[in-house]
Amino acid sequence: MKLSKAEEQLMELIWRQEKVFMKDLIDGYPDPKPATTTLATLLKRMQDKGFVAYTLFGNSRQYYPLVKKADYFSKHVKGMIKDFFNNSPAQFASFFTTATNLTAAELEELKKIVDQEIKKKKK
User: Are 9 and 59 in the same domain?
Assistant: First the structure.
């Protein structure tokens, strides 16, 4: 399931802090800050989607993520590869390395990462 842009922004704050109260969430936004009711609505939708849960402390709710950030974005990258690159990671990599105008140093760093993953997979 996918989050809206507003939900992703809120989820970023939750992932960063791991356990967070409403006040902490509001403080995490730049000015102008969103209304408490707006965040409550987003949090409710995110609960319904299975992304967050909360623990009650008196009248306060402490929210925490149910989905790891890496898992969420991994699923979306896989979906993008499937939908836009004919399910071909090689086509995606080719597009990514040419369309993003990476420097030689950045490409070398990517090559190191790929080489390390190849070594892990061969073990």
Answer: yes
- For residues 48 and 37, is the Cβ–Cβ distance under 8 A? no
Are 97 and 116 found together in one domain? yes
**Cα separation values, 31 from 26, 34, 35, 79, 118, Å:** 10, 8, 11, 34, 45
Task: Give, in order, the Cα–Cα distances in Å from 17 to each of 73, 95, 102.
Answer: 18, 34, 32
Residue whose tokens read 């420097």: 103
- Quickly list DSSP for 4-45: -HHHHHHHHHHHHHSSEEHHHHHHHSPSSPPPHHHHHHHHHH
Can you give the pTM of this predicted structure? 0.73
Q: What is the pLDDT of residues 18-35, one digit of tens each?
A: 999 999 999 999 999 999
Q: Look at residues 50, 65, 80 and tell me which one is the last residue of a structural domain.
A: 65
Where in the sequence is the domain holding 114, given as residue range(s)?
69-122
How high does pLDDT run on average in the chain? Answer: 91
Whether the Cβ atoms of residue 20 and residue 13 lie closer than 8 Å to each other: yes
